[in-house]
Structure formats: C-alpha cells, structure tokens
Recover the amino acids of this structure.
C-alpha cells in the first residue's frame, strides 16, 4: 500500500514557475489532489472552505510571507497539527529558529528535488495521521514495545523492515537509539544524522548524535550537536529540556562560553535572576571582553531595577563594540529616564 496516497496538498508560491514545478513533482510522486495558491491570503481563504492534508508554502512572498501564514494557521485550533512545510533557497540560523518557534513541520530547500520532497512527506506521515496502514502502525508499535523491553535485536529488525516501506525520521531515531545501546556509535551517528536530514528540527535526534560523539571522545562534534538540540528546544519554549542539554554540554566542555551565556538567558526568562547572574559571571570569567555578555548582564540589571549597574555593563559592551546598536539604545533610554 502506498503510505502517502489520497493526500490533498495546498501549494503556495507567488512564483508561477516554482508553483508549477512543485505541482509536477508531487504528481510524479503519485499524488493527485494538488491545489495552488499565488499568495498567502489566497491560501488562507482556500483553507477556510476546504480541508487539506498538507501545506507547502514559499517563505518569501509579497504582502504576507509563508512564515506569517504558518503563524495564522497554527493559531487556529483546527490546524494545530496540520503538516506545514516552508520552502526557500537558503535557511540561515535565524530563519530555522523562527520557523521552529512558529510550529513548522519541515523545511525544504529550493531548487526542489523529487527525492527530498518524497522523504520529507514520508517522514511526517505517521505523526500527521496521513493514510498510514494499520499494518505499518502495528509494526511501529511492535518495535516500540520491543525497545521498552530492551529486546534490541528484534526491535532493530522491525524498524529496518519499516524503512523498506518509506524513510521516517522517527524510525531512524529509534535505530540510532538501538545502535547507541549496543555501543555501535558510528552506526548510531549515521542513523541520527539521517533523522535530522529528514527533520531539521528533531531535537532528540541531535541529542542522540551528540551523546554518540561524546562516547567516541569527539568533543567538538558532541558539543555542536547538543548545542543544536538546545537551540531547537529554546525556540520551541521547552526550557527544561534545553536546560538539561546545556548542562550536559558543560560536562563535555566546562569552558564553553556560549552555554553559560545561554543558560543566563534561560534563567532570566524564568525570572531566576540570581542563577542567571551566576551563569553570566561564569561566561564573563572565560571571556571578559565579550560585548554580548556585558549586554545580557545589563539587561538583567534592568530587570532587577539596578540601573547604575546596567549602565556600567552597557558602556562596557559599547567599549568592546562601538556599533552595538541595542546596547546604545537601552543606555540612551536609561540616561533619558524613559526606561
């Protein structure tokens, strides 16, 4: 049975050529119900009168961006779990974070490749409830049950069999988990990497990859993967998960300045100002001339109503980076008495 049959797609792009290309790829992959919209507002109007199983939208469009459409869709309880893909030529770090915070399902890089789109759609079929056969679901459940009883060999056979039906980020993650438990860290890393290729926002897969690298003594790779997991958790407002990963990074490398700084931001958001200050001070001890740390300490002092101390650190930030616009703006606001 085709896992992805009978799915209705709403494709959104102001570029008619790109819209036609995406539609042709979906048809080539065997999908028949494909609808197009030339703007985000048109897509939203269509969504209100017809149900769709998946939205694929360009990020950059005039009037309303794909990201804005995503936020509107996610604010409606009817579409909270509707698979939503964003497409763009390049996804830089801020875009990935913004998309994750807004609730994107997956990101697709242009120009389109049929195999990439096939994998992306296959990876969310179970999570979105899209025409997954009861037999496949039963197999997945069987694999999870075998995992719980630590019957790794039989669980591995089940998940490898599932991959023959179509690639899935969740299945690759479970294979990585099994390989880690068996001490086969190289193979675990490869499985986790495939999971993150299918779903760039799969924080647990980055965690697993980081721990596998850590077991191999590859500290830099471990730190990079765990940092990626922490950033995804923070962008999704999962502070407790982020805190756990950040503290794990400190076990790998106690002199990681970014972790102390990020922990400071996290504790400040939680209102735990004393703990936040301790983290910032640790970061400052490692790198006393880093303007961002001084800026963050200044912001913390503002929250604590210690304006003189805040001014001191904003001035420090500007001394190290005279073009630090945010520090200059807050400092001016304090001196003018408008803050």
């Amino acid at each position: 049975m085709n896992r992805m049959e009978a799915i209705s797609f709403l494709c959104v792009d102001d570029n008619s050529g790109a819209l036609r290309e995406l539609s042709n790829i979906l048809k080539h992959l065997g999908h028949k119900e494909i609808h197009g919209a030339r703007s985000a507002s048109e897509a939203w109007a269509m969504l209100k009168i017809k149900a769709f199983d998946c939205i694929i939208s360009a990020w950059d469009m005039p009037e309303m961006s794909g990201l804005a459409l995503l936020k509107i869709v996610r604010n409606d309880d009817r579409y909270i779990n509707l698979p939503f893909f964003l497409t763009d030529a390049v996804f830089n770090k801020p875009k990935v974070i913004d998309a994750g915070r807004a609730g994107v399902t997956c990101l697709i890089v242009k120009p389109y490749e049929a195999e990439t789109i096939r994998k992306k759609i296959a990876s969310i079929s179970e999570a979105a409830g899209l025409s997954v056969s009861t037999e496949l679901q039963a197999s997945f459940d069987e694999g999870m049950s075998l995992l719980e009883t630590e019957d790794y060999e039989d669980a591995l056979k089940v998940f490898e069999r599932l991959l023959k039906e179509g690639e899935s980020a969740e299945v690759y993650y479970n294979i990585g988990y099994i390989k880690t438990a068996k001490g086969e860290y190289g193979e675990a890393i490869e499985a986790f990497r495939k999971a993150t290729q299918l779903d760039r926002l799969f924080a647990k897969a980055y965690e697993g990859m980081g721990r596998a690298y850590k077991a191999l003594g590859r500290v830099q790779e471990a730190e990079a993967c765990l940092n990626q997991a922490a950033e995804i958790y923070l962008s999704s407002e999962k502070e407790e998960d982020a805190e756990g990963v950040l503290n794990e990074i400190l076990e790998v490398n106690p002199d990681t300045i970014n972790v102390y700084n990020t922990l400071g931001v996290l504790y400040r958001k939680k209102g735990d100002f004393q703990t936040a200050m301790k983290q910032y001070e640790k970061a400052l001890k490692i790198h006393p001339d880093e303007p961002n740390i001084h800026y963050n300490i200044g912001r913390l002092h503002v929250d604590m109503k210690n304006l003189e101390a805040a001014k001191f650190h904003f001035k420090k930030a500007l001394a190290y980076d005279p073009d630090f616009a945010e520090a200059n703006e807050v400092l001016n606001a304090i001196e003018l008495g408008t803050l």
